[in-house]
Amino acid sequence: MKKKSSKIRLWPIFPIITERILSRKIGRYSLLLHQNSETILKSNLTHPVFEIVARIAAETNTQAFVIGGFVRDLLLQRDNKKDIDIMVIGSGIDFAQQVASLLPGEVPVRVFKNFGTAMLSYYDWQIEFVGARRESYRQNSRKPIVEDGTLTDDQNRRDFTINAMAIELTPDHFGQLIDPFNGQEDLKRKVIRTPLDPDITFSDDPLRMMRAIRFATQLNFTIQPDTLNSISKNADRIRIVSTERITDELNLIIQAPKPSTGFLLLDTTGLLQLIFPLFCELKGTATIEGKGHKDNFYHTLEVLDNVAAQSDNLWLRWAALLHDIAKPQTKKYIPGTGWTFHAHEFKGAKMVPQIFRALKLPLNEKMKYVEKLVLLHLRPIVLAEEEVTDSAVRRLLFEAGDDIDDLMTLCNADITSKNQMKVKRYLENFAIVRTKLREIEEKDRLRNWQPPISGEIIMQTFGLKPSKPVGMIKDAITEAILEGIIPNQYEEAYQFMLREGEKLGLKKIN
Ligand code: ATP
Ligand code: MG
Fold it and tell me: Does domain 292-444 have CATH number 1.10.3210?
């Protein structure tokens, strides 16, 4: 029996006009257009899992679809992150097990009984299987009550029209696109829109508000006005979402090509104030005696975009976000001098662990790295303003270690002045700093440097146990080398150690 009649009901009014495969440039991507989409999609569904899904669907008389991000990215001709969501009418777990048994080799299936989903890893692809479902939500939780549902139920519960499209994989209809909310039109117009009334979609699961802004930022799309208004209206419901999930989305925004887009949307909708109030404190400017200062909120976003244009490193981008975070707390007007933000780099570095803890970011070496860059972010600029001495460069190299290049990227990005003369001067001085850094690094090799005299040697020489004088002598040696008082060599450092020991009344015993 053919299932054609039910199919036609699902099929939107769909003009099959031409055999040609059309593609159109949409911002960063070229969009696969839907004329005769069956042919287009078939030729793109080349992943071996689709064929196996089709076989199992036929054998078990089950309807199966690929749905969500994979379909969206296929139509956008955008690189997919290598995850495929398969939705079946029935049990996703059973279906996954049957697919796994037909894939070559041992393919482990991870089953998440609570969610009714199963996941296969096949080479570097993650393939998730889920049964079509219908969801209903309660006021105070983003966890829905889940029941088995139809394809339509399942598409209705999706977050955006562009994420609700499905392609059927059942052999009779293999390659057919089921697009009940005209997601293709929204892809063409570069619009993020909820499939249902946005107030329902967002109130049900407020994480979707973050996702709307995240997709708009990643894809360079706009959020349709009703959808955007609804985010402002429902912003407060973000409180029922866990920090981890919010931060995951925030990180995706930060990793986008132009992260400021997302931050401005978060700000205008009121979400930013709720999820990252400290960052909002950077906003605003003040004028006293006719002297103003720049708005550090917009300045920071500009620095973030500048860094993003240079590097994919998420943590360098976080350093950009936080480099001036202590400016509001350190801001002071000094008559005759103007606005100062004295020691904001020190205070800012101290704030990094607090912020990482609050946002549930990792409290590991990534955090240390951000702390370090915030602490040092002014140093190359100070260097560039003054005479670039060898010892100042040596000290910077010693403190920044392997992160010196990232620090220089951050500092370059920090030059956002509109005054072209000023920018030119900074850039020229920076070039000098870079040259000097290279020269001194070649000569002294100070990255990841350890002074030639260890604490062990100091203890042995003077017969000391681990104690304060050991640290004092070691620091004095480090200082002397960085200042260029003695060369970075064992013998000179040893003699220097003896003199320092003498000053402290210590006697050489070995
Ligand atoms: P990405 O490229 O980031 O993986 P994606 O669209 O695949 O984007 P996923 O988080 O992997 O996003 O989710 C897969 C699909 O599941 C989405 O395309 C969407 O249809 C649906 N989805 C995910 N999260 C939600 C949600 N919170 N509410 C509604 N639908 C969602
Ligand atoms: Mg995905």
Answer: yes
Q: How far is the centre of ligand 1, averaged over its atoms, from the C-alpha of 445 (Å)?
A: 48
Best substitution site from 65, 74, 84, 163 to test ligand 1's pocket, by max atoms within 8 Å of Cβ? Answer: 163
Q: Is 60 exposed, middle or buried (0-12, 13-18, 19+ CB in 10 A)?
A: middle
Q: What is the pLDDT of residues 142-172, one digit of tens each?
A: 889 999 999 999 999 999 999 999 999 999 9
Closest ligand to Cα 218:
1
Strands in 290-366 per DSSP E: 291-292, 331-334, 338-341
Residues of CATH 3.30.460.10 domain(s) within the chain?
Answer: 10-189
Query: Distance (Å, rounded) from C-alpha 29 to C-alpha 421?
Result: 38
Q: Are 75 and 185 in contact (CB under 8 A)?
A: no
Name the percent of the chain lying above pLDDT 70.
93
Residue 4 banded pLDDT, cuts 50, 70, 90 = very low
Cα gap 278→331, rounded to integer Å: 15
Q: Which residue's CA is the nearest one to ligand 1's atom 10?
A: 69
Question: Considering only the top CATH level, what class is 200-275?
Answer: mainly alpha
Higher pLDDT, 380 or 280: 280
Tell me where in the chain the CATH 1.10.3210 domain(s) lie.
292-444
- CA of 309 relative to ligand 2 center, distance in Å: 25
SS3 breakdown of the chain: % helix, strand, coil, rounded to 5?
A: 55, 15, 30
Output phi, psi for 288, to 5 deg. Answer: -130, 135
Q: How far is the CA of 68 from the centre of ligand 1 (A)?
A: 6
pLDDT, residue 36, reads 53
Please state the pTM of the whole predicted model.
Answer: 0.88
Minimum CA distance residue for ligand 1 atom 26: 159
| Per-residue pLDDT, 21 | 43
Span 10-189: which CATH code? 3.30.460.10
* Residue 328, ligand 1, Cβ within 6 A: no
Mean pLDDT of the region 412-438: 87
Ligand 1 pocket residue status of 199, Cβ below 6 Å: no
**Radius of gyration of the chain from Cα atoms?**
30
Residue 341 carries which DSSP code? E
C-alpha distance from residue 199 to each of 113, 128, 228 (Å): 30, 29, 10
CA dihedral 170, 175, 180, 183 (to 10 degrees): 140
Residues 6+ apart with CB under 8 A from 174: 42, 45, 54, 168
3 lines ligand 1 (CB under 6 A): no
